[in-house]
Structures are given as C-alpha cells and as structure tokens.
Amino acid sequence: MMQLIVVLFFAFLGCALAGGPNVGKRTYGGYQVFRLKPGNQKGLDLLVDWFKNERDGIDFWRPPKSLEDSVDIQVEPDFLDTVKKELASANIKVKLLFGDLGKTIEKERQENSKQWKSGLSTFKYQAYHRLTEIQTWLDDIAATCPSNLNCDVTSIGKTYEQREMKMIRIGEVGLSNKPAIWIDCGIHAREWISPATCVYTIYRFITDFTRGYSRVTSLLRKFDFYIMPNANPDGYEYSWNMNRMWRKTVTPQYDLGSPCIGVDPNRNWDYQWMAAGASSNPCSDGYGGRSAFSEVETQAMSNFVYANRATIKAFISLHSYGQMFLTPWGVGSALPADYTELYRVASAAATELKAMYGTTYRIGSITTLLYDAAGGSIDWTKAVAGIKYSMAYELRDTGTYGFMLPASQILSTAKETYASLQRLAEEIQV
Question: Which of 41, 146, 239, 379 could bridge to 246 as Cys pair (CB 3.0-4.6 Å)?
C-alpha cells in the first residue's frame, strides 16, 4: 500500500513539476537563449561542468565542444542573474539570441495555426503541421498514387500513447526485393524542421516521378525509399500541446521514484547503451531509459530495420540543428573502418546541398563534431544491423534560430536536403 502511495505521489508531482501529460502548457515567458564563446580554458571548463552536471535552470541547445565552437543555452528567468554573473566572471562572450523565448513560440504557433488542406498539390509545405495533419496527408497521397509507383503507407507499430508510427514506401512498381534507403525524421520532438523536410521529400519524389524527371525515375527504379516523417509521434504532439522545447518520448517514470516523464529515443538503442553521453536521470533531456529499447518507438523502428537489413543499404536520420553530416561512432575517438567511404558519400551529398543556396555542412563522426552520445540509432544500425551507410543530417541552421527555425526557411531547407539525398542515393555502392 505504501509503495502505491509513493507512486501516486510522484505521478502527481510529475504533472506539477515536469510538464507531465495533465499539466498546462509551458509558455517559456521570460526565458532567454544565449550564444556563448568561451575565451579561454577556464570558460570552457565551466560550460563543460554545467553540461555534464546538468546545471539547474539551463537547457543546452548546443553543448560545449572546444574553444573554437560556440555554445547555445536556454536559461530560465529565475536563474538569469546568477548565470550572467558567472559567465562574466569567466570572461565568456555572450550574445542574446532570444530575449523572450515565449513570445517567439507564441508567434510561431499563430503562424502555423491557419487552415490547412491535404492532398499532394494543396498541402501547405511552407508551414509546420500537426501530427494528425501529416498522417492524414500521408493516407491521402497513398490513395491517389500513380499506378506505376508504389506509395504504400503502413504502420510499423504504436507509440506509448497508441499513436500509429506511419511510414511510406516509395518506389517504381516492378522489381521485388530492391535495395532500399531508410529516412526518418523527428526522433527528437522539438526539431520541427526535420518532419517538415521529410514531408517535402515525399512530395517531391512522387511529383518528380509523375513528371518523368529522369534523375528521380532512375532512383525510384533502383531503390525503394522507406520514409518515416515522424519517429516520435507522442513527443511531437507534446511539443505542440504542452512544451515546445520537448525532446523525448512521454513514457512515465513514476515507478522509478521519479517525478519526470520521457526517454531520449536517440539514446535508447542497444549498442553501447549508456556507455557515455547519456544520462541516468529520468528528468534529463538525455535520459537513456531504464534499459536499452525500453521505448516502444525504438523497438518498432529497430525491429523493422533489422528484419529488412538485407535490403536496406542506407539508414539516414534527419535531425536539427548545426548543418552537419554525422557518421558513427557516438562513443570514443575511433572511426569506422570504412570511414573513408562514408566521408566520400557525405562529401558528395554536402556538395550537392551547397550548390543550391550556398549552405555549408561539416562532415565527421558524432564525437568529432559534437560529443559522446551512446545509444544512438546510426551506431546501432551500422554495428548491429550491418547497414554500411548509416548517417545523420543536422539540418539548418547554425544557431541563429536553432530549434525555432522560422517557417519561412522550411522550403529552402527541404529543397537543398532533397537534392542532397538524391546525390547520396546515387553515390552509395550496393
């Protein structure tokens, strides 16, 4: 009886403190976002300490890496004075990115709450959309797909809150057991540009094939593309309804004695799980979960990929932000034995991307360009599923807007990424 009381108490406390499913929206009024530039080792050490020890009142949008790399942090109003004083004492340069994050979020919601239309030609691709809108659109285009093109929409499983995990297979009708390329988006809920880019990619593959564009018809004759616009449906909905900066799933952790919910689904894969760069604190954005594949979302994705590992030749995950091509590994300094080949393909894709609008991407392993991040999807797909070309994009931008990339940049981001994905598919060796 006492154990039940404790669990119920933490469930109530979780809703009050951690933005649980039954609490009102977090508005972020008065929250500020800063870009920091550590001028010396003392400043860098301070930021690393804050990041590793999960300093209260701070959310790292872009964690510390080196003296040359900038750091982006979101600070709660009650901690602003203290944080600013400590930054000043460490001689860290500070640039204000958002003076009131809440106002930016509210403006974004108003811009994306206007009436929408489904259908391939009438969907509003220059706006961010709710999960139900995206999934309805998927079903609609599957029903109107050209007879010589497969546009099969299936669900590979259900989320914790029983939402469908929908995926579309696009490829020319004809050959069976074609090599395939997997593309997933939105595994981190707050990275809205990622699902928007996946949606646009689906639209362009279908319309370009219908128009007879030779580049696309050749690709869809050679490959099937498995595209999942949202790999974290519960978290994505939560980011719309409750907390715009939400990153994780929404599974309760109350039975662990924690007041918090959710697991980082890109720290939950069963390869070097919890080895480094993931948190054991259920309240952390980087919480790796109570066990590898504890989340039904990562179970569903990994089960599908593993079952189709013989035909899936590339596994591509779209994230934001930072403008990077990331390769394994997410732990340690070692590179894959075939890193030279991965770099060649990523370099060709980056060149194609840059040719459209001049957007520059860096290329390197997760640990080289970012930080330790064990339990990520691309490490598992390469090491366990044996998928050679396992890579991730970090989409726009480099920090001016970060996770709040304006809707006005959706189309340019999506167009350059679509071109890049085509080049990547052309370059891989199958």
Answer: 239
